[in-house]
Amino acid sequence: MIFYIDPGTGSMLFTILIGVIGAAIYALRNSWVKLKVLLSGGKNRSRESARIPFVFFTDSKRYWTIFKPLCDEMEKRGETVLYLTASPDDPLLKEKYEHVKAEFAGEGNRAFARMNMLQADVVLSSTPGLDVYQWKRSRDVSWYVHVLHAANGVTCYRMFGIDYYDALLLSGEYQINEVRKMEALRHLPPKECVMAGLPHMDSLRQKWLERGPAPAHKTTVLLAPSWGPSSIFNRFGEQMIENLCKTGYHIILRPHPQSMTSEKELIDRLRQKFPESEKLEWNFDNDNFDVLYRSDLLISDYSGVVFDFALVFDRPIIYADVDFDYEPYDAGWLDEEMWTFRALPKVGMQLTQENADKLPEMIEESLHSQAYAEGRKAAIEETWANVGNSIPTIADYLSEVRQRLLKEAGSNVEAAETAKQKKRFSKETRNKTVKVQMSDETENSHGKEQHS
Predict the structure, then answer these.
(1) Are residues 80 and 190 in the same domain?
(2) What are phi and psi of 145, to 5 degrees?
(3) Is 33 inside a domain boundary?
(4) Residue partners of 108: CB distance under 8 A and separation at least 6
(5) Residue 184 in contact with residue 164, Cβ under 8 Å?
(6) Which 3 state secondary structure label does DSSP give 362?
(7) Residue 232 has what pLDDT?
């Protein structure tokens, strides 16, 4: 007989299993520490010495543009960091550092199982969902920090995605307002909100500045949609590509990486009907910087690349309208439109089924629109604070918060030791008092006997 367990039940069972194993490991670990202290006559070094100062954790190698410059900065400062990744081919695993150690934590639940048993002062991660499903807060981690990986509101995460972090590294004032509203609705303690900026976009910007202006080329339009039933390839399909080919511009088609797994049949069919030529190319590069750098206009849908292109390269976009279901996201708790959908009309033109046949005119208008250029500047002001300076700001914050935690821990130890001394002193004083009283009573007793 074959038993089927649905994903939700499987997640719950895994959480229970991890909880049981975790409790057992903590009990054994504490017993072992106590035994070593007894065997060493109380002179064994504290378990605090086994804690890692800083741990960076990511569930995907695609966020290496955040962690690579941050690891470089911490290495330069001589800070001890353990970088844990759930991607076995993460580029950072090949980096040679002295103070930063990169390790593969395992994929999926194996990575979360390791994170659940971690001993560290500060953990920085781009992964939402802490203490919601498989990934639990370790009792041996003092502080959890979340870093954003896109220009977007914090309510775009699945429900409760950032609720149980201690601190958030943000990039816009509107995000702080979202955080405070969610905390009030859910009766959560206030988190530390640090206006750090966007490391991912800072990395793109730095590469762009180093590369310099693109060489003279034919006007290039990049079609880079997301994947799934609501994506451009599925909704507009062959007709859109045909319309693009009629524009006379150079066209680049870049499917989402997940399309090559989940929609391979669709992509194969499109590639067969629209083979590469002087006017059209297909792009499957792992790193999208080069293709963004070469393009003059981007057509996309709800892919995160929209704001990378518009704000970093300061170039126009055309975005497809999509039916977005707010319910599974934190945004569903607030009576306001997500920042993404408020900002998109300012930075680009919307593509619909009704105006799809006017795509050539839309491209031409977008390329020369001053209104959209002003909209891009306004969007930067709203969602990209601390431009170009996010990495040192984050490194400063991590170091500061760890020093604060160590100071608080030291104060707590000192207070506990003082309390212990007071208790011991009180006990000794009480014992002396009792002895004195007993002595007085004995003398009085002897005196009475002599008098009688």
Answers:
(1) yes
(2) -125, 135
(3) no
(4) 86
(5) no
(6) helix
(7) 87
**74, 99 Cβ separation under 8 angstroms:** yes
Token output for 41: 């006559």
For residue 303, pLDDT over 90 is answered with: no
Same domain, 217 and 330: yes
**Sheet strands side by side (includes 120-125):** 100-104, 81-85, 52-58, 120-125, 141-147, 167-170, 192-195
Q: Count CB neighbours of 159 within 10 A.
A: 18
Q: Which of 224-228, 239-243, 271-275, 428-432 has the lowest mean pLDDT?
A: 428-432
C-alpha angle 437-443-447 in degrees, rounded to nearest 5: 145
Q: Are residues 287 and 337 in the same domain?
A: yes
**Angle between helices 237-245 and 359-367 in degrees, nearest 10:** 60
Q: Is 132 in the same domain as 207?
A: no
Residue type, 420: K
Question: CA-based Rg of the chain, rounded to a whole angstrom?
Answer: 30
**pLDDT the model gives residue 449:** 47
Give the end of a domain, one of 383, 418, 437.
Answer: 383
Task: Judge if 298 and 354 occupy the same domain.
Answer: yes
**What confidence tier does 164 reach under pLDDT thresholds 50, 70, 90?**
very high
Structure tokens at 231: 């994506």
| Any domain includes 162 | yes
Q: Residue 419 corresponds to which tokens in the numbers above? A: 């309390």
Over 90: is that where the pLDDT of 41 sits? no
Does the residue 56 lie in any domain?
yes
Q: Are residues 248 and 363 in the same domain?
A: yes
Q: pLDDT category, 46, cuts 50, 70, 90? A: very low
Range of the domain at 209: 203-383
Predicted local confidence at residue 302, as pLDDT: 72
- Overall domain count for the chain: 2
pTM above 0.85, yes or no: no
- Asked if residue 163 and residue 187 are part of one domain, the reply reads yes
Give the CATH number of the domain where residue 76 resides: 3.40.50.2000
| Distance of alpha carbon 208 from alpha carbon 38, whole angstroms | 60
Query: Average of pLDDT values for 408-435?
Result: 60
Residue with tokens 């004083």: 429
115 inside domain: yes
Residues 194 and 278 in one domain: no
Q: What is the DSSP letter of 231?
A: S
pLDDT at 119 over 90: yes
The burial of 440, by beta-carbon neighbours within 10 Å (0-12 exposed, 13-18 middle, 19 or more buried), is given as: exposed
